[in-house]
């Protein structure tokens, strides 16, 4: 399986701001790849570089083996939902027809994409009358117009209602199942956990992780047994005596690491310690992501002071 998008040592500076800093990764076909990072991490800049809207300060980006500006009929190779920019006075259909014509795409395809995104009923309405969710759908329709093998979607769930969110998730999965490359950015780990098969995580314009979602979860999520007790010293001694590592949790709780509920329960009973709660805990994906990107966020916050 060869990579459909190759980002090689990409750096992009805007004046004194380094938005992307020596970033390299590949995006493969047949799966949804989530592009995750806190606000300002450099996701949009990278996506804009992939479709030739931003010129790299150094490094390069290849799509389907070529630089975007060297692709013949680029819309047939890459479809992108970046900023939704529509000629707002035009109708939905006219907007798509104009795009199709300038890219030598048959007009019949407009009817097809309107159907795919569920905008057939509003095809003759002016784009400026559309809700944000419908405007997102129109952006997706434009991205699909050339029936491309590679799709880039920058925060596609923004502005969508719950039904729209389910729709876009299903669409992305379907496009990937058809063998296409789907690269989708988000600043929400929870959203990506539901949609993506693979993750590229960046912070401060640098690569933090490149792994499957399953791997990311098992590597980054912290699990422990939470103990709430009025006798923390007794509990600490009992656990420590059995060779179990104990950390301090919030509100005076204890966290027993690398152990099981059964082992902790048995020890607590044997030492006759009063407990109010013993429960297994797994840090959420969102926490794992925040932990991973915390340094990047701190750094940026300090810079802006
Ligand atoms: N045209 C520009 N001129 C100057 N600085 C820019 C420009 N575009 C982006 N930046 C800066 O580059 C950094 C990365 O921005 P970018 O929009 O790529 O991040 P992002 O990960 O997409 O964030 P968000 O989730 O907020 O969209 C930020 O510090 C941003 O302020």
Automatic annotation (TrEMBL):
Alphabetically ordered keywords of this record: ATP-binding, Nucleotide-binding, Transport
GO molecular function: ATP binding
Origin superkingdom: Bacteria
Domain ABC transporter, first and last residues per copy: 5-229
Signal peptide: none
Family note: Belongs to the ABC transporter superfamily.
Name assigned to this protein: ABC transporter ATP-binding protein
Organism: Actinoplanes sichuanensis
